[in-house]
Design brief:
The chain is of the alpha/beta class and 622 residues long. Helix content is 38%, strand content 17%. An eight-stranded mixed sheet has the order 1-4-3-5-7-6-10-2, with helices on one face. Strands 12-11-21-20-19-16-15 form a seven-stranded parallel sheet, with helices on one face. α8 packs across α10 and α16 runs antiparallel to α18. The longest helix is centred in the last third of the chain and has 25 residues. The radius of gyration is 27 Å and the shape is globular. The two termini are 52 Å apart. The N terminus is likely disordered.
């Protein structure tokens, strides 16, 4: 049945946004881009006006899935907001296109195939989009359900300047007098699968898609409610079930912290059988972690030590041999039982196994495996964990990180990454990785990484510009060639509005101070410890100066209190969330300057909880 959706007129916006791009083509190396223009973004104005056609119709496939339905609804919502036009939405069998209308075919429609528009996985991967204009119809598609939604967001960005800044802030320009555009877009993002773990995302699953993120926990194979991500060895072979009869399946240390991967072939048999049960119970997820436990050790039995020595001293070599054997058996089983399944098995390059089992050939300047047995099976991805490093500096400044990426790339065609953007021992750190984000993404992109786990403060909201950080990840993962400083300017203007200049001054002074600490005191930015937030580094005069910028921001928005109260309250809260940071450290370092330090902290804690900040470090509630 045809459904008509009519939206209210577009609310007053701060600036008029241009309606088409300059046709800039993404770089040739952008995830498979090449010199023949396979990947390109071309958007041209026509002489026609959108409003000149009497019909505006969104057309969905007859066998439409839920995500494509969402994509259609989002197209209607944003299009009507920009143009003030009424839009029909219908299934393909209900539509007979005519010259009196503009049609927007979304997803895997029959018309897409009839026009021979390639939206295949081999071309677009997990998140790539195609947008193509043919006569009076636009076709928006992707190879996966989420990519179809991303095609809608890319269309709106190109057509009306649509940007999603945060859960409570988006922008779309006035398209009520816009010229119709002609699209020819085939685009693969820099990182197809950015999987974000951040408290700001926990309340609403739809936010992931609006940022073009994935919910990390929802990408992994699961057995009922038990999700197989991260450290899974003991999930697959629980000690409490197997140790008493099979102690040699586990490491001989006192706590038996790891599996033994070499002593008993029967362990592998049972491991594979249990993996089969998990896959059989799963509902079509694409990733299955075969991951070691969360510690810094490896099995120290004589059998493992002997095999490690035979593989050049690399415990990671033993891990790869074990993983390959398990995956070979699972692949053979799935070929018979689940031939339609396409699972990527992931193993951790973590702590003791971070170093790849390779040697460097000086003559050829390449890394070579220590044995053919450590080369990853075709559907094995190595998840390299970038930890115990300085996140202030770009990864390419670290010889060990670059060598590890190069080495693992010599063993596997598929690398995934786990990295951090918070200090787990101090969620109120200012964690300055703003200057390294883009360079890091470009480095990982150059190594073919298409899945990045970004672990921030996953169990609480934080302050110190957490919304800005999410926005930057969203934009840079989509296109790593964007300029970070320009993105920050845009975010400040859109998110803090009348208070933007003063909040930007606060941001600049805060992180310029961190720059000084790095250069003069050798401070680094890490996911643990407390290098940066030391009292001697943050004199009261500096904290007071930072606070003054936020007080100025409150003054800047004050006129809105009598003219636009809702806008005033919104901006006041956004400024107050940033103020939490400077107030916390003022109380922490200089309570003597406060009239009633205990009352000050109680008020701070209540305000923090209001904004979802419930922990000051991992596991420690306010």
């Amino acid at each position: 049945m045809k459904r008509k959706i009519l939206c209210a007129a577009l609310a007053a916006l701060m600036l008029l946004c241009t309606a088409c791009s300059d046709g800039k083509t993404p770089p040739d190396d952008n995830n498979g881009g090449n010199n023949n223009g396979t990947y390109h973004v071309v958007v041209e104005k026509t002489k026609d006006k959108i409003y000149e056609k009497s019909e505006q119709t969104v057309v969905l496939p007859n066998d439409c899935d839920e995500m494509t339905e969402t994509a259609g609804a989002e197209f209607v919502r944003l299009f009507t907001e920009a143009t003030e036009l009424s839009v029909d939405i219908a299934y393909e069998s209900e539509v007979t296109p005519s010259a009196n209308g503009y049609y927007y075919f979304i997803g895997n429609t029959d018309a897409l195939a009839a026009q021979k528009i390639d939206a295949s996985y081999s071309l677009l991967g997990d998140s790539g989009v195609v947008i193509k204009t043919v006569d009076n119809a636009d076709y928006l598609a992707g190879a996966t359900q989420k990519a179809i939604l991303y095609a809608v967001y890319e269309y709106m960005n190109q057509a009306f300047g649509y940007e999603f800044y945060a859960a409570d802030e988006a922008f779309i320009g006035d398209g009520s007098d816009s010229a119709r555009l002609r699209f020819d877009i085939v685009y693969r993002p820099s990182v197809a699968n950015p999987c974000m773990m951040a408290g700001e995302l926990n309340g609403d699953d739809t936010l992931y898609y609006k940022y073009r993120f994935q919910n990390y926990y929802q990408t992994w194979v699961a057995k009922n409610s038990d999700v197989y991500y991260a450290h899974t060895y003991f999930k697959i072979l629980p000690k409490e079930k197997y140790f008493s009869e099979h102690p040699d399946w586990y490491s001989p240390d006192e706590e038996h912290k790891n599996l033994c991967l070499t002593r008993d072939p029967a362990m592998i048999d049972e491991f594979v059988k249990n993996c089969q049960e998990v896959i059989a119970a799963d509902n079509g997820h694409n990733y299955f972690m075969l991951g070691q436990e969360d510690n810094f050790e490896f099995c120290g039995c004589e059998s493992c030590k002997k095999r490690i020595a035979e593989l050049g001293g690399f415990s990671s070599g033993v891990m790869m041999e074990f993983t390959n054997e398990v995956v070979r058996r699972l692949n053979d089983w799935m070929e018979t039982e689940y031939p339609e399944r396409n699972i990527t098995f992931v193993t951790f390059a973590y702590n003791h196994t971070k170093e790849p089992p390779v040697t460097y050939n000086e003559k050829t300047k390449t890394y070579q495996p220590v044995s053919d047995t450590v080369v990853a099976e075709k559907n094995v991805s190595v998840q390299y964990v970038i930890n115990m490093c300085d996140y202030y500096a770009p990864y390419n400044k670290s010889k060990s990180i670059v060598a590890a990426l190069d080495g693992w790339s010599a063993l596997s065609d598929s690398l995934t990454i786990w990295e951090y953007s918070t200090n787990f021992e101090n969620y109120l750190d200012c964690f300055d990785n703003f200057g390294s984000m883009a360079e890091n993404i470009r480095l990982l992109e150059s190594h073919g990484v298409d899945y990045i786990v970004e672990q921030a403060a996953y169990n609480t909201c934080t302050t110190a510009f957490s919304e800005l950080r999410l926005y930057l990840w969203s934009k840079l993962m989509w296109n790593s060639q964007l300029n970070t400083a320009d993105l920050i300017d845009d975010f400040m203007f859109r998110y803090y509005k009348e208070g933007a200049d003063d909040v930007r001054a606060y941001f600049d002074e805060l992180y310029s101070h961190v720059d000084m600490l790095v250069k003069e005191y050798g401070v680094s930015v890490r996911s643990g410890g407390n290098e940066c937030m030391i009292k001697t580094y943050w004199p009261y005069s500096k904290l007071n100066s930072l606070k003054e910028h936020l007080l100025d921001a409150y003054e800047a928005i004050k006129p809105l209190q009598s003219t636009q109260l809702l806008r005033y309250n919104m901006l006041r809260d956004r400024i107050a969330k940033q103020e939490l940071w400077v107030d916390y450290w003022t109380h922490k370092f200089y309570p003597i300057y406060l009239d009633d330090a205990d009352a000050f902290y109680r008020n701070w804690a209540n305000t923090a909880r209001k904004f979802g900040l419930t922990m000051i470090q991992e596991g420690l509630y306010i």
